[in-house]
Write a structure and sequence with these properties.
The N terminus and C terminus are likely disordered. The strands form two sheets. The chain has a six-stranded antiparallel β-barrel. Strands 6-7-8-11-10-9 form a six-stranded antiparallel beta barrel. The radius of gyration is 43 Å and the shape is elongated. The chain is an alpha+beta fold.
Length: about 300
């Protein structure tokens, strides 16, 4: 049987070429490892990398395009059940965010009430507003606590910043509070800065008016108005509001003093019915400031007299 020897030279050449390439590769690796960063092989590597970088960028862009097209194809192929499930999940997340926001606002309001109770050393019952009067001639709210919770008739009611009203009726589980703006509301009050006494009255127009103030007392916009404690119905030193307008001059018996309440009653949601108050609140702060000022003034006069005698 004859043999075919025609392919042997070709196989031999391939083998020899492979051996040569391996040897050359080993030599180049050895030279690459031994030469410095400025060697010819390193230079050739940098030039080659620069030359192919545009191809790499193009390849990256093509890959990103392929990913985007694949995602778009998947979105387009999503069935109705998948889309409905995503919508339901989105709605659920929105509801949870809204609920968390309600909790945050409630915590903020309750913290304000706690801060006020600590400041005035108040003992009392924290309540929620259940309903508001719809009668244009009266301003009242109904709270969710009553006599079973220690609420009594005539107790003052405070919000997060100061006085908001007074309890006018009580049953076992609820009570009704007459707000500051009610035309029948009245409380003995005074201007914190100069101790001028008066009576704060509500009005049908929703504003508060400080009446019966000594006509010679100086009253300016921005003056703080607090409870005076006269008559015994309210503790002394509770914040009521701030003077926002004075119609008339000092000495005018007919001047009108308009007061803006410290709490916005239209947005009240939680309040505290006060059973006792362990401090004079803002009245004590003002008295301390006045005493300090008087003491400082007396000390200055004394020093001045000593200097003059010398």
């Amino acid at each position: 049987m004859p043999y075919n020897f025609k392919q042997e030279p070709s196989a031999l050449r391939t083998y020899v070429l492979l051996v040569v390439l391996v040897v050359v590769s080993l030599v180049l690796v050895s030279v690459y490892d031994n030469e410095g960063d400025g060697g010819p092989l390193h230079g050739m590597q940098g030039a080659l990398s620069t030359a192919v970088s545009p191809l790499k960028l193009a390849s990256g862009a093509l890959s990103a395009g392929e990913d985007s097209a694949q995602n778009a194809a998947q979105d387009a192929s999503a069935n109705a059940d998948t889309l409905n499930a995503l919508r339901d999940q989105n709605n659920q997340l929105r509801e949870e965010v809204a609920e968390l926001e309600e909790y945050r606002q409630e915590a903020q309001r309750l913290q304000g009430i706690l801060d006020l109770k600590d400041y005035y050393s108040i003992e009392g019952t924290t309540c929620r507003v259940l309903a508001r009067s719809t009668d244009a001639w009266s301003k009242t709210v109904t709270l969710d606590k009553g006599s079973n919770d220690g609420v009594v008739y005539g107790a003052p009611v405070v919000g997060t910043s100061g006085l908001v009203g007074q309890v006018i009726s009580v049953d076992s589980f609820t009570c009704t509070v007459r707000l500051l703006q009610d035309p029948q509301f009245g409380v003995a009050a005074m201007i914190q800065s100069n101790r001028a006494q008066g009576v704060l009255m509500g009005n049908i127009d929703g504003l508060l008016y400080l009446e019966d103030v000594d006509s010679d007392a100086e009253v300016n916009a921005g003056d703080v108005v607090i409870t005076s404690g006269l008559g015994g119905g309210f503790s002394r030193g509770i914040m009521i509001g701030t003077v926002v307008k004075v119609d008339g001059q000092q000495g005018d018996t007919n001047r009108s003093i308009v007061v803006e309440p410290s709490d916005v009653v239209s947005t009240l949601e939680e309040v505290t019915v006060v059973s006792s108050m362990g401090s004079d609140g803002l009245a004590a702060d003002s008295s301390s400031s006045s005493s300090s000022s008087s003491s400082s003034s007396s000390s200055t006069k004394s020093n001045s007299s000593k200097t003059s005698s010398r």
